[in-house]
């Protein structure tokens, strides 16, 4: 009878080779588990969400207020404008002051479309500093 451990037929000699088949089986199982769980782990995206409370910014004379009301009217400071008039006016202001800053005050019931088109008009006019004005959480719930 032939022994699995070597070429000698001696029954008295101990098996000198290590059996690696169970080790390979365990490694293959761990590899399969890793392959299955790796996409799940790397699929999550870590995003730091902004806080709802905000600090008031200091008053600055060069900051314009772009207001969008719930009835879809656009105001630059206190002047009512249409979207093309807004872009033309912002273009004039950006030509005079390249660092012109505007604060956007949009009513919660204003359409997203008008807000997005107003921001795009400001960017086309050359305004790159746009701030969003919000209410603090404590006064927003009242």
Features:
alpha/beta; 15% strand; 5-stranded mixed beta sheet; 142 residues
Structure, described:
The protein is α/β, with parallel strands linked by helices. It has a domain at 63-140: Nucleotidyltransferase, domain 5, CATH 3.30.420.270. It has helices at residues 21-43, 83-96, 112-125, 137-140; strands at 63-68, 74-76, 79-81, 101-106, 129-132. It has a five-stranded mixed sheet with strand order 3-2-1-4-5. Helix 2 (83-96) packs parallel to helix 3 (112-125). The longest helix is centred in the first third of the chain and has 23 residues, at 21-43. It is rod-shaped and about 105 Å long. The model has no long low-confidence stretch (mean pLDDT 78).
Mean pLDDT: 78
Radius of gyration: 34 Å
Total helical segments: 4
Strand line-up across the major sheet: 3-2-1-4-5
N-end to C-end Cα span? 92 Å
Strand pairing plus helix content: what structural class? alpha/beta
Low-confidence stretches: none
Q: Please tell me the CATH architecture of one domain by its name.
A: 2-Layer Sandwich
Q: Summed up, what is this model?
A:
By secondary structure, the chain is α/β, with parallel strands linked by helices. It contains four helices and five strands.
């Amino acid at each position: 009878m032939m022994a699995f451990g070597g070429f000698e037929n001696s029954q008295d000699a101990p098996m000198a080779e290590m059996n690696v088949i169970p080790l390979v089986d365990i490694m293959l199982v761990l590899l399969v588990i890793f392959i299955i769980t790796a996409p799940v782990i790397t699929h999550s995206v870590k995003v730091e969400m902004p806080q709802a409370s905000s600090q008031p910014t200091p008053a600055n004379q060069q900051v314009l207020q772009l207001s969008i009301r719930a009835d879809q009217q656009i105001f630059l400071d206190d002047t009512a404008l249409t979207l093309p008039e807004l872009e033309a006016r912002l273009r004039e202001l950006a030509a005079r002051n390249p660092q012109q800053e505007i604060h956007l005050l949009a009513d919660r019931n204003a359409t997203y479309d008008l807000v997005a088109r107003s921001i795009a008009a400001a960017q086309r006019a050359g305004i790159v500093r746009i701030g969003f004005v919000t209410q603090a959480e404590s006064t927003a719930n009242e």
